[in-house]
Amino acid sequence: METLSRGWAWLRRNALPIYACIAVAYMLIPIVVIAVFSFGATPKGKLTFGLDNGFTTEYWSSAFSLPELNEALFTSLRLAALATVISTVIGTMMAIALVRHKFHGRGAANLLIVIPMATPEVVIGASLLSMFIYYSFALGFSTLLIAHVMFSISFVVVVVRSRLIGFDRHLEEAAADLGATPFATFRTVTLPLLAPGILSAALLAFALSIDDFVISNFNSGTTVTFPLYVFGVALRGIPVQVNVLATMLFVLIAIAVTLVLWQQRRAERLAAVRPEPIPIPGTAAAQ
Amino acid sequence: MGLKQRLVPYWLLGPGLLWLIVFFLVPMYFMGELALRSGTLTSGFTFDWAWANFPDSLSGHSEQIVRSFFYAGTATVLALLISYPLAYAIAFRAGRFKLVLLFAVIAPFFTTYLIRTIAWKTILSDSSPVVSVLQALALVPPDGRVLATSGAVIAGLTYNFLPFMILPLYANLERLDLRLVEAAKDLYSSSRQAFIKVTLPLTMPGIVAGVLLTFIPAFGDYINALVLGGTQQAMIGNVIQSLYLTQRDYPEAAALSFLMMALILVIVLIYIRFAGTSAFMGEEEDVA
Questions:
Q1: CA Rg, chain A, in Å?
Q2: Which of A95, A259, B97, B136 is deepest in the core (most CB within 10 A)?
Q3: Which CATH number describes the domain made up of A67-238?
Q4: How many domains, chain B?
Q5: Residue B70 to residues A170, B121, B141, B150, B281: CA-CA distances in angstroms?
Q6: Residue B47 counted as domain residue
């Protein structure tokens, strides 16, 4: 009885952390399933539960043996890389303008950046398709690129903007005082300090692009990206290699995110180092 | 400040705003234009102010519209119930594991949405142990299934949009001044009273932001209904998608999509009017 009530008390005290662990485990379930399936042979291309033929690395060694899948993955990587570069450059410029400058039409600009993030993907895909239909524009890689840059820009602005806020302007002023031109100041002081923010933004843009199915489905024409390929084969049964590639992508993105987080913390620690104020005779600091 | 200086922000904003205007705003105009056309795919769609497309698109799909509200609403409430304690635990009880837990919360985003949902389809498939357990607990009838039910779609929506609920809640809870809760307890309020009268009102902005960020994408979603649902679980997103891409009834599809955009725009603008853009953009800061 004694131990029981003590156990109950312990449980009550730690209910929240225990709950947190269960909730996080729940969030990770499909990831684990995808990873486990990448090692499990499933007969006749049909997904069944469990490891029928036991643990095998067969599909990892033949990860790139399906030409259609390779092509789709390559298209996705090329698309994501291009969309990331364009949206990161454009979005960073916008974030700098929003945080650093006063100008007319600021509220409207903010709104135009926010609304796309709050718009359901179906509507973005459908409206773009409506325009492309109107102009009889051929759907394909270029329309995908237009769409991917469009939906990534807002997220880039948000991430870079949060980094710019709380940025120590004195460092730039110091560079200017030391005779640096505005461009030299930007290149040697602003950009390096902003780099972690820009990197996270680029990573987010890349992840959004490589993951997108809904908007791409409207505007792809006959071009097939990785998610579109998965959707196309889903009815026939998904080859196990898809799980392998999904696991690979997961690991790569997880590593990249870890590196960016680590870099960001390091940058924050470096930026926190400030020289001791030099006491000037006759001022309050000198006493 | 010289003219050249004053033009700098416009040069910086120019390319991005242009991209958003040409590929976001202008397409909305063309969607509206398409919605006012009539005709068939073979004879061509001609513009003739076909306003009737709007009420027709609503009345023709009222079932899916009601279902979208119900599914997205239920998923949002469930996500809130699951996320609040988790966000609270991460903010106050995680200690040095805070970053690890936050990392785990966004980890699902590192895998493809579609593949993640297909993984759930496998987990909930008829022969799976999960379904056997649910059957043993009599939560599902002995010969019943989980896939192709409303429950499966709502579960999928809840799962897929959970991070959108957790992150704003966490951002808000993290700034909560715990001394206020202590003060309430010092003044003899019970833990429950302190939670209801202090913590909950103070974290309301996070709750509203999370609800908005979860409900909107869930309302427009069609992947979950497509992968986890059957023919009886179609949402508006599924209708728009199939009208555009399969049936090619562009005017009706455009009308429905336009109305969905209008509804969400109204919700978002009301929200921004009262709470600003911080839910989407982070905190506002004074300009230089």
A1: 25
A2: A95
A3: 1.10.3720.10
A4: 1
A5: 53, 21, 23, 10, 28
A6: no
Of B16, B120, B212, the CB nearest to A93: B16
What are the residues whose beta carbons fall under 8 Å from the beta carbon of A253, sequence distance 6 or more? A203, A207, B110
Tell me how far the alpha carbon of residue A230 is from its chain's centroid: 20
Residue type, B109: F
Maximal C-alpha separation, chain B: 78
Domain-located, residue B265: yes
CB contact under 8 A, A150 and B20: yes
Indicate whether B21 belongs to any domain: no
How confident is chain A (287 residues) per 10-residue block, as mean pLDDT?
81 86 89 85 46 72 84 93 96 89 85 90 92 90 95 92 79 85 84 85 90 91 90 83 89 89 77 62 54
Quick check: B223 and A213 in contact, CB under 8 A?
Answer: yes
DSSP structural state of residue A284: G
Give me the domain span that covers residue B231.
64-276
Residue B268, in any domain of the structure: yes
CATH number, residue B91: 1.10.3720.10
CA distance B252 to B57: 6
| Any B CB within 8 A of A221 CB | no
What is A31-93 written as a DSSP string? Answer: HHHHHHHHHB--GGG---SS-TT-B--HHHHTTT--HHHHHHHHHHHHHHHHHHHHHHHHHHH
B164-175 pLDDT tens trace: 899 889 988 888
ipTM of the prediction: 0.89
- Interface residue A277 vs chain B (CB under 8 A): no
